[in-house]
Amino acid sequence: MTLIKSKIVPHLWFDKEAKEAAHFYCSIFPDSSLTNVTTLHGTPMGDSDVVSFTLSGQPFMAISAGPLFQFNESISFMVYCHNQEEIDYYWEKLSAVPEAEQCGWLKDKFGLSWQIVPANLDEMMQDQDAERAARVTEAFLQMKKFDLSILQRAYDGELVRE
Closest Cα partner for 81 from 42, 114, 36, 117? Predict the structure, then answer.
């Protein structure tokens, strides 16, 4: 049994899919594994799985505890990507609700929201040149999945603002 040693661990509430979701996420992210599944019997919702897993070294927990709570966009997980290939990979693996896609945000098949973003986006947005940040913002507000080449061209001033 693996004991969690992190100070803060995200805990996800699923209807019945905690184990399935953990396996799915572990199949996508490197340095990931399912570390423990405990089934609680006789809960108000019947049998309930409590799942421990890591994604890219970050510990998570999940529970299958019935339909009392649903995910919404007020919580999301950011995945920082170093190139377009990585953005495309995570987008293809995770995106399951096309109408929810906007500005690098997507929703997976379990209803969990993710932000698939370039690793250098924070640097672009915090640039001391406010015009650069404004051009990048204007560019990404028109996107669903981030396009690094367009963001870089906007940052560099190669895209003309209308």
Answer: 117
Structural domain of 92? 76-156
Query: Looking up tokens 């500005």, which residue turns up?
Result: 103
Judgement on whether residues 88 and 120 belong to the same structural domain of the protein: yes
Say what the pTM is.
Answer: 0.92
Asked if residue 53 and residue 121 are part of one domain, the reply reads no
- 110 closest CA partner among 59, 75, 81: 75
pLDDT tens digit sequence for 51-79: 999 999 999 999 999 999 999 999 999 99
